[in-house]
Amino acid sequence: MRYFLFVSLFLVSCGKPYKDLVLQQGNITTRTFQPEFTTELFRCTVDGKFLFKKFHLSGLLYFKNFSDTATRVVFQNEMGLTYFDFGWDKQAVFQVNYIMEQMDKPALINTLKKDFELLMFKNIEQSSRAYFKNNSGEAIFRFKLPKGFAYYILDGNNALKGIENADEKRKVVCMDFAPPNQSNQFAEQITIKHLRANFSISLKKLQQDVTE
What we know:
This protein is mostly beta strands. The chain has helices at 2-14, 106-120; strands spanning 22-23, 39-50, 53-65, 71-76, 82-88, 94-99, 130-133, 139-144, 149-154, 160-166, 171-181, 189-194, 199-207. The protein has two helices and 13 strands.
């Protein structure tokens, strides 16, 4: 009996994580969330657990915007082996240019696609934008996704401190920026935690902007 009471309390406490948000009326800040970059380079580590096995990947994650507005995201290890090479054309249509066989799983590809689209603010339904404040006075902008919502969270200085993806019941992905980012660039450090898939991605910027 006590076990079921504990489970019930746990589910209640974890349910609807954004229930305390207060919808704001009137003018909405023009703060944009799409980063402006030509090329960016990050040290990337991926850690997780699948069944009883832990896994670890490390290397360089490379973002590139082309003059025709197409975008590439490439992840390679220190020896130059490519884990994946993803692309978006000028209409933001996603394609897999390459992915290593061990990672060629539809669920994983879709998860990584969503991560990068949240970071780059691609395929976000901007007309669904809603503006909220939480109990800490932080500004939160919510956008509808095909499944659930994306939340872009600003601190008191109007700096982007994180991005979250959640459904109606609980958070799915949490992205934390350190330090919070006031510019339209990628943050210096980004931590992405997949709460259901049980893995995390850590990014540390190596260069502000790399020229070819």
